[in-house]
Fold:
Amino acid sequence: MTDSVKDATAAASARWQAFFNAGDPSGCASCYESEAVMVAAPFGTYRGRGEIEAFWTKLIGDGFAEVEYLDSKIQVIDDHSAVLTSKWRMNKAEGVITRELWVRQPDGSMRLREDHFEALG
Structure:
């Protein structure tokens, strides 16, 4: 079961990156649980899918694109969840993901419950 949670987390993360790189903030937001929390330093804390979608809408609208994860690590917590950490870069910024908590949903999909990241430049 550990490998399936790890593989599902990697696939869900790749799906989020594909939505971002396609300029699709609604797609990005669909990867979060409805009551997810996103802590985006130094921008702020966003609660719920609506606030999270508004953040990604503005960021993509401001011309941020081409996200790439570097040195990603996935730590399986249990049969239903895993934490992803990674460095990241895009066309106008770079930073670190300190905690993406991905949780398996009743339909079998993985969604973000928590997303903690920092933009460094």
